[in-house]
Design goal:
This protein folds into two domains: 183 residues, D-Maltodextrin-Binding Protein, domain 2; 200 residues, D-Maltodextrin-Binding Protein, domain 2 (3-Layer(aba) Sandwich), CATH 3.40.190. It is built from 17 helices and 14 strands. Helix 2 runs antiparallel to helix 14 and helix 9 packs antiparallel against helix 10.
Length: 419
């Protein structure tokens, strides 16, 4: 009897030791929720591969929901979060998209202690730390910085057409008829969110940095004459876009420029990742870039980041994911493929073997330009405002009614407390 008891005890001890060994190596699952599929997938896949190398026992579930700018993904995420079924970590734009939706609803864990323990408080720009801070706590880990206000083109095509890159929207409107006469669409545009993206940069050009900031701080009315002037300018610009815009993804709109069917395209610099990684084009040769007209010296920024939902099924694995996302190694693995620059100030962004000429120029501008937050990409306004504002833009494209757009936007700002 004693011998049998000792044998069972030995089996128990060995089994416990084995479990402890597996736990030390890592185990379980990790579900990462994002909208990085298709052409944006390689960057996320590289980050997941790096995680797998460091945590060999963890099964990573890549839960992507396709659709540009995360419009579809946010709808799915809302269903899951409200249904008590959160992913372990999810992609979210830093700023109001997270704090104005899930932090104020008490659905997220603060990450201030993670930043302290990892020594990150002085490794991210102060303005970015401020953007991800709410009620004294930090809520998300930025993996990158994207620029919204970029105009893309093909240098050889502009030379063929005898056209220069416009520095202002007046210059663009002056060249618009010339391009149309050649059978070229002056400005490519895609589905609704790309129109909102375009409008935010027209708005920035019209209002300037101070006016743009005041608008989203609730210090300037959407019915102000300067804002109405932006809608009127947007009306003129829309006349220079492709009539099939509503049926095109952002990549398909980008392809119009690559194929020489359109001259220019205002899109975030994930377009650089698409043209470099997917299309194999070299910046400065296969594609060119400049600040969106009227926005030189301004960096309209957004940041992709990851947070930690309350009730994450695999919390420790999620924390290890956040540690990787916030590390120099993680950011230097992800960003060259994504077409973005690191959020960390100590990443290897000057390394030409990692970061191409466009990304190095973006990093230089980020360090020296005035910074404002993107509307379409979650930095400037709460998600509740953006969701309905997309409808305002759709109605404006159909009606071209400046007063209606202005009054609807102001009512929406008041209802959603944009400030």
């Amino acid at each position: 009897m004693l011998k049998r008891f000792l044998s069972l005890a030995i089996v128990f001890v060995l089994g416990f030791a084995l479990v402890g060994s597996v736990a030390a190596q890592g185990g379980g699952k990790l579900e990462i929720f994002s909208w990085w599929a298709g052409d944006e997938g390689p960057a996320l896949e590289a980050l997941i591969k790096l995680y797998n190398q460091k945590h060999t026992g963890v099964e990573v579930i890549n839960a992507t929901v396709t659709g540009g700018a995360g419009v579809a993904a946010r709808a799915v995420l809302k269903t899951r979060m409200l249904g008590g079924n959160p992913p372990d970590s999810f992609q979210v734009h830093a700023g109001q998209e997270l704090t104005g939706t899930w932090v104020v609803a008490n659905r997220m864990e603060p990450l201030t202690e993670l930043f302290r323990s990892e020594g990150w408080l002085d490794k991210f720009p102060k303005d970015l730390i401020d953007l991800i801070t709410y009620n004294g706590e930090i809520w998300t880990v930025p993996v990158n910085i994207h620029r919204s206000n970029v105009m893309w083109y093909v240098p050889a095509k502009l030379q063929e057409w005898g056209v220069e890159v416009p520095k202002t929207w007046d210059e663009f409107l002056a060249v618009c008829p010339k391009l149309k006469d050649r059978g070229v669409t002056p400005l490519a545009m895609g589905e609704n969110w790309t129109a909102v993206h375009l409008f935010e940069n027209v708005l920035l050009a019209q209002l300037g940095v101070e006016g743009y900031r005041n608008l989203f701080a609730g210090k300037l009315s959407w019915e102000d004459g300067s804002v109405k002037a932006a809608w009127a300018l947007f009306d003129k610009i829309l006349n220079c876009t492709n009539p099939d815009a509503a049926s095109l993804s952002w990549q398909q709109a980008n392809d119009l420029v690559i194929e020489g069917k359109a001259a220019f395209y205002v899109m975030g610099d994930w377009a650089a990742g698409y043209m470099t990684t997917t299309k194999g084009l070299k910046p400065g040769e296969g594609y060119g870039y400049a600040p969106s007209p009227g926005t030189a010296g301004v960096f309209n920024m957004l940041s992709d980041s990851f947070g930690l939902p309350k009730g994450a099924p695999n919390r420790e694995n999620a924390l290890n994911w956040l540690r990787l996302v916030g590390s120099v190694e993680g950011q230097d693995t992800f960003n060259p493929l994504k077409g973005s620059i690191p959020a960390r100030i100590d990443a290897d962004v000057k390394n030409p073997n990692l970061y191409n000429s466009y990304l190095q120029s973006a990093a230089a501008d980020f360090a020296s330009n005035a910074l404002v937050g993107s509307l379409m990409h979650g930095a400037a306004a709460p998600e509740a405002f953006l969701n309905d504002f997309q409808t305002v833009v759709s109605v404006f494209i159909a009606t071209r009614d400046v007063d209606l757009a202005a009054s609807a936007s102001q009512a929406l700002a008041e209802a959603t407390a944009v400030r």
